[in-house]
Automatic annotation (TrEMBL):
PANTHER family reported for this sequence: AB HYDROLASE SUPERFAMILY PROTEIN C4A8.06C (PTHR48081), ALPHA_BETA HYDROLASE (PTHR48081:SF13)
Keyword Hydrolase: yes
Keywords: Hydrolase
Organism expressing this protein natively: Streptomyces hyderabadensis
Domain (BD-FAE-like): residue spans on this chain: 51-253
Segments for region (Disordered): 205-226
Cited Pfam families: BD-FAE (PF20434)
Protein name: Alpha/beta hydrolase
Keyword Hydrolase in annotation: yes
One Gene Ontology molecular-function label: hydrolase activity
InterPro entries registered for this protein in UniProt: AB_hydrolase_fold, BD-FAE-like_dom, GDXG_lipolytic_enzyme
Amino acid sequence: MTAGHRPLRELIAAPHPDLAPLPPAARCPSGSRVLRGVPFAERAGSRPLELDLWLPENTGRKTLPLVLFVHGGAWLRGRRDDMGMRTRDWDPGPFARIAAAGIAVACADYRLSGEAPFPAPVDDLRAALRWLGLRAAELGLDMDRTVVWGESAGGHLASLLALTPGPGPAPVAAVVWYGPADLTTARGPFDPRSSSTPEALLLGGAPADRPDRAREASPLAHAHPGAPPILLVHGEEDTMVACSHSRDLAGRLDELGAPVRLRTVPGADHGWHGLPAARVEEIFDQSLRFAQDFTRPDAGAR
């Protein structure tokens, strides 16, 4: 092979996500633009990881704050563009609404428990943040104003992103809807001795048999005084993830002097099941206002 010639195998392969051109953006009726299926990481033996990116109209050409949204699905299913069953029929949808408020939204894939065990999903979300930081100038993003927002299993992962150090941009705040906070202790339907629960599938074995990994995967174990502001919202009648998860995490953060807000919602089961539509809208609006509060240009001076 002559110098300067690349092997055919390299020529056939798609460009690496760090270098690949961005796809064209589709315009939405709400005025935002969306880039769908943007690769951000390659994992050996696994599917390419992709994200959807919602960009608000940016007539002022200022850099945009960002929400990294993390989907739920018990770590074993789910879609990156799904904020939960109660938002699926919204028009405009939840991500278009966040973009209309002037905040970009990245909805990222992560490897599910059938693909790779913990900490793979956290590693993948950090890879999304790294890629967004790498391409921030092209996309007009200010990664120093990033909020993570997750629901259910995605809330658990968002909590870990906010509470544990890692490479790449660090979130300035987090919104957590009904997320598990403790994978070590029996709560509600969760039994740490079982090897068939979603938590066990995430960890690669029953949490009771893997205490170190269960603790590593528990946001409650990572609470610390320097944690960023976190909004925890949880239904009081949650039959899938006990409300005590959020109560105990909020109590621990408050005890340590970390900024935390807890809202428990009477009459709400998991996924806001049982709530009137207006209450779900109000929870979303409160969460969006929280994200806005910590992504304003002067938020660091608060």
